[in-house]
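B., you asked whether I could sanity-check this one before it goes into the benchmark set. Here's the sequence:
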Amino acid sequence: MGRQLTFRQLGTIKGWPHSRQWTDKLVKAKKVPPPKKRPGGGAINVWDETEWDIYQGTFVSAFPPPAFLALTAALIDALSTTSIDGILNAIERLRAILEQEGAAASDVVVTLKAKLTASKQATSEAAATTVTDTS
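And here's what the prediction gave me:
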């Protein structure tokens, strides 16, 4: 048995978005666990946190999670990997998330350039600094 949560705590701690009246209708329809009276008397209803967590774990969300959470996770993956394949996978995830939000595939343009090897980089730097004397 977990701690006892009041209706207000269901909203602030567990993210319960519904009013007392709607919650009461759901209780009567046996769609949410019924409250108990606070131990020691009083008119305050409380819900057992463990029982509520089990119930809340059975929810099927009608709304997808906010896009910013998925975008943040994909960006973290892209920035924390050192492989090109990992970056490409993260970019594809970013595109898929943005498309779900209504963006077109052409709205996301990403260009990856392979890192120059040391010899090619030295050659290109030397070519850039070489001055040809035409006198």
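One thing to flag: The chain has two domains: 4-56, 63-112. Otherwise nothing jumped out at me.
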